[in-house]
Amino acid sequence: MPSPSTHTVAGTTLTMPVQVRDARCIVAGFTADADAMARAIESSGASPLRPLRMRPGRGMVMLVFVDYVDGDLGPYNEFGVCLLVENPAQRPSPINALGSVLRGDAHALIHRLPVDGEFTRQAGRGIWGFPKFLADFDVDHDSSRKRGSVSHDGSLIAALETAPGLPVPAGSGDAELTAYSCLDGTLRSIPWRLGSLSGVRARIGGATLTLGGHPIAEELRDLKLARHAAMTMSVAHLAMTFDDATDL
């Protein structure tokens, strides 16, 4: 059996897969203009990918605030702008697209990924090609109405507040998912495995999104996000692992 691969980041050796033992998150999914999503994908250098179309002319963008409580990359906050894209092994259709979203196994291009930790910034960019950069966060995962905001160079990117959802039974997770990144012209696929989940609440709608004056906020406006979220979810505890990226 081959030995696990390792990566050295800022003098620290990481053994793959990277473990996230505990994290919590809030998620909001908004439908978006599929042609605008395709332009964003192309501008990022990930042109082989195509938006996952939920219905004619509309794709899906997931906005995610994650608080990594305990993991190999240390504690940090993260905000993800994730563009759902077609699974090349699946025939494109609105029914298949909806099934992927409901099952939680839709493929996603990690389009923007500000964080508030230097070590995870270096690891994310160097190991997986994630477009991580340093930003400032103000988050509340403890109140019944969860909220998060992220700013960069004193300019607000986005603020998200979610209303309480209905409890969802805890599960073992154990689903293998696929994310994509594109950095410095290299498109990569990253397998990541979702472990145990608990404290999950979900609902239709229930999100208030405020966009600031930062260029990423303008990008989000250009995507023509729906006025109301299609769904929101919060997770109090989740575990994940991330394996080595594959260049495409």
Number of alpha- plus pi-helical segments: 4
Largest sheet: 7 strands, mixed, barrel
- What is the approximate shape? globular
CATH topology: Acetoacetate decarboxylase-like
Distance between the termini: 25 Å
Question: Runs with pLDDT <50, length 5+?
Answer: 93-99
Using only CA atoms, what is the Rg? 17 Å
Report the order of strands and helices. Answer: EEEHEEHEHEEEEEEEEHEE
List how many beta strands DSSP finds: 16
- How would you state the average pLDDT, rounded? 91
**Which percent range describes the beta-strand content?**
over 45%
Number of domains: 1
**Fourth-level CATH superfamily:** Acetoacetate decarboxylase-like
CATH-derived architecture: Beta Barrel
Percent in helix: 10-25%
* Backbone structural class: alpha+beta
Please give the CATH class: Mainly Beta
Strand order of the largest sheet: 3-4-5-6-12-13-15
Protein name: Acetoacetate decarboxylase
InterPro entries: Acetoacetate_decarboxylase, ADC_dom_sf
Organism: Gordonia jacobaea
Labels describing this entry:
248 residues; alpha+beta; Acetoacetate decarboxylase-like; 7-stranded mixed barrel; 4-stranded antiparallel sheet; 52% strand; globular; Acetoacetate_decarboxylase; ADC_dom_sf; Acetoacetate decarboxylase
